[in-house]
């Protein structure tokens, strides 16, 4: 197990040091020159600002990076407690329990659990489903069908909320007299050939619950149908796969895990040039 970064000697984080030199003086100036600021409260104001704008950001940064086995500069520790001098990609395998794995780019060599390969020998490095195309096509067709059903059922409550609730509120805020009633607005939706295909009634709860059930169902079966791997293909055609699992949370997958993996691939391709 990697050494706890709290045991390492303290070194300033560059971002935190930049915040002290640039951000904190500006905040302190704004606080002390406020119209209601009093000279007698200057000392307490400075102490409060030090705690809120320096101590708390430093503590949160230090704890967050320590939990990820990183130094204050964001560098990663290996299993021997030494800082890895290079690009590191931390991924996880499985869901319960989650097993941590690493891909490293150190001195022009990419290291993954399956082996090592020099960047000069890499033909391609991608994140993809390593299964045969027939299986991927079947699963993607099923997932696309479920997404279409989800959009179909979630569209009705969204359209009704916008047309029957938000538009009257907006008209009221603008001082515009309400021209038609809720029932008349609903009849307008029914008269539209496209919207009438989506909006069947004024019910909000039932289509929302169906859409919510579809999303929960896809979340439950995701570990059984989703397979992902970092696949490195060499110039001779052989491949080194590193299977990993995205988080069940789609937002974390898109904004954190996927972005981190793409950054590692970009660094590897840049090192090859």
Summarize it.
This protein is of the alpha+beta class. It has seven helices and seven strands.
Overall pLDDT confidence? 81
- Overall number of structural domains: 3
Sheet having the most strands:
4 strands, antiparallel
Described by the principal axes of the CA atoms, the overall outline is flat
Distance from first to last alpha carbon: 35 Å
**Helix content percent band:** 40-55%
Query: What is the quaternary state of this protein?
Result: single chain
Number of helices: 7
- The Cα radius of gyration reads 27 Å
Strand order of the largest sheet: 1-2-3-4
Q: Write down the secondary-structure element order.
A: HHEEEEEHHHHEEH
Ranges where pLDDT stays below 50 over 5 or more residues in a row are none
The secondary structure category is alpha+beta
Number of E-type strands? 7
How much β-strand is present in the residues?
15-25%
Account of the protein in words:
The protein has helices at 14-32, 42-67, 133-173, 182-191, 195-198, 205-225, 250-272; strands at residues 87-93, 99-106, 109-112, 115-118, 122-128, 228-234, 239-244. The chain folds into three domains: 5-67, no CATH class; 87-130 and 227-272, PH-domain like (Roll), CATH 2.30.29; 134-224, no CATH class. With 273 residues, it is α+β, with helices and mostly antiparallel strands. Strand 2 (99-106) and strand 3 (109-112) form a beta hairpin. The strands form two sheets. It has a four-stranded antiparallel beta sheet. The mean pLDDT is 81. Helix 1 runs antiparallel to helix 2 (42-67) and helix 3 (133-173) runs antiparallel to helix 6 (205-225). It contains seven helices and seven strands; from the N terminus they run H-H-E-E-E-E-E-H-H-H-H-E-E-H. It is flat, with a radius of gyration of 27 Å.
């Amino acid at each position: 197990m990697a050494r706890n970064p709290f045991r390492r000697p303290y070194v300033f984080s560059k971002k935190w040091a930049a915040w002290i030199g640039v951000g904190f003086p500006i905040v302190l100036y704004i606080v002390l020159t406020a119209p209601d600021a009093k000279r007698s409260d200057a000392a307490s104001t400075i102490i409060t600002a030090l705690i809120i704008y320096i101590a708390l950001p430093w503590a949160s940064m230090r704890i967050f990076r320590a939990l990820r086995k990183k130094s204050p500069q964001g560098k990663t520790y290996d299993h021997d407690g030494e800082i890895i001098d290079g690009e590191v990609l931390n991924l996880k395998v499985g869901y319960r329990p989650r097993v941590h794995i690493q891909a490293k780019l150190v001195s022009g060599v990419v290291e993954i659990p399956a082996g090592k390969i020099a960047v000069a020998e890499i033909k391609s490095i991608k994140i993809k489903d390593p299964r045969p195309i027939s299986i991927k096509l079947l699963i993607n067709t099923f997932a696309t069908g479920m997404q279409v059903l989800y959009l179909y059922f979630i569209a009705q409550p969204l359209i009704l909320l916008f047309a029957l609730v938000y538009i009257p509120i907006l008209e009221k805020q603008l001082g515009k007299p309400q021209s038609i009633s809720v029932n008349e607005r609903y009849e307008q939706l029914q008269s539209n050939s496209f919207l009438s295909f989506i909006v069947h009634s004024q019910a909000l709860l039932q289509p929302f619950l169906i859409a919510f059930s579809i999303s929960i169902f896809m979340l439950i079966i995701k570990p059984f149908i989703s397979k992902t791997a970092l696949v490195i293909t060499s110039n001779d055609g052989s491949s080194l796969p590193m299977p990993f699992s995205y988080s069940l949370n789609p937002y974390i997958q898109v904004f954190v895990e996927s972005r981190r993996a793409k950054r590692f691939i970009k660094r590897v391709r840049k090192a090859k040039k």
